[in-house]
Design a protein that fits this description.
The protein is α/β, with parallel strands linked by helices. The chain folds into two domains: 164 residues, P-loop containing nucleotide triphosphate hydrolases (Rossmann fold, 3-Layer(aba) Sandwich), CATH 3.40.50; 106 residues, K homology (KH) domain (GMP Synthetase, Chain A, domain 3, 2-Layer Sandwich). It has a six-stranded mixed sheet with strand order 2-3-1-4-5-6, with helices on both faces. A hairpin with a 5-residue loop joins strand 7 and strand 8. The protein is globular.
């Protein structure tokens, strides 16, 4: 009988290097939200990959950044906490960007980490192949990585190679979660995140990070469809107008795009009832953060 492995893998990196895209590609399903806006992921999200020989529990963490408010503090603590108690750490970098202060900060954090660290060099499909090797060599000089793997999360290049490296460092163990379970997060939270993703896609400037989404009701109706009432919270009245758009046009587009993803997630028809409300300076209010699911002791 072949050996079965199971364990935890933390995925870290600067904002916008492709961590959530990578995890979604590995899992084969959208669980972590994706955006070209930095700091999209706000909490540690467990995503579960089950294969015949192994079960890998990925922790998708907020991008490493300098906190500017209580929400930022929470995100920084979530990332730092994910580095301890895992079996392997995957440090994702963007090959199209020069290493900077963000990478230096993460490398300092990694100096105190006992788990082996794999370097996943992402977006290698975006530059000529001959330029990739020197970049890998430069990273190898600054840290003793357990392995360096060039990948493209979006194009799904060499993901099997990355998985093979991860499995090397997992301990022998049982399968912790059922075959069909891909996240430990409740459906309500995933639905809220999918709505927030569409807000990020369709708004600009200061709007994205001032947005939280709360699912007030999620009910299966007699015909089998699901009614969802979701409230999009912003910090200022002016932001509320932007999210709603002229004659409600932008809010309708947010709803249409989010509904398509939610229907895929739930496997049924969905009626998505969206509202927009103002909650002044919620990112700096501990009570609001708790209500939106950000617990300081998570």
């Amino acid at each position: 009988m072949s050996m079965h492995k199971s364990g935890f893998a933390a995925v870290i990196g600067r904002p916008n290097v492709g961590k959530s895209t990578l995890i979604n590609a590995l899992i084969g399903q959208k669980i972590a939200i994706m955006s070209d806006k930095p700091q999209t992921t706000r909490s540690r999200i467990l995503c579960i990959l089950t294969e015949e020989d192994a079960q890998i529990i990925f922790l998708d963490t907020p991008g490493v950044h300098k906190p500017k408010h209580k929400l930022g503090d929470y995100m920084a603590k979530a990332t730092e906490g994910a580095l301890h108690g895992v079996d392997v750490v995957i440090f994702v970098v963007d090959v199209t960007e020069k290493p900077g202060a963000g990478e230096q900060y993460i490398l300092k954090q990694l100096a105190n980490v006992r788990a082996p660290v794999l370097l996943a060099v992402n977006k290698v499909d975006c530059i000529p192949r001959e330029k990739v090797l020197p970049i890998l060599a430069n990273y190898a000089k600054v840290y003793d990585f357990a392995g360096i793997v060039p990948i493209s999360a979006r194009a799904e290049e060499n993901l099997e190679g990355l998985l093979a490296e991860i499995k090397k460092y997992l301990p022998e163990g049982p399968q912790y979660y059922p075959d069909d379970m891909v996240t430990d997060q409740p459906e309500r939270l995933i639905v809220a995140e999918l709505v927030r993703e569409k807000v990020l896609e369709l708004t600009r400037d200061e709007i994205p990070h001032a947005v939280a989404v709360d699912i007030e009701e999620m009910t299966t109706r007699p015909k089998g469809d699901v009614y969802i009432r979701a409230v999009i919270y912003v910090e200022r009245e002016s932001q509320k107008g932007i999210v709603i758009g002229a004659r409600g046009a932008l809010l309708r587009t947010i709803g249409q795009r989010a509904r398509a993803d939610v229907e895929t997630l739930l496997g049924t028809k969905v009626y998505l009832d969206l509202w927009v409300k103002t909650r002044k300076d919620w990112r700096n209010r501990a009570t609001a953060l708790r209500e939106f699911g950000f617990q300081e002791d998570d």
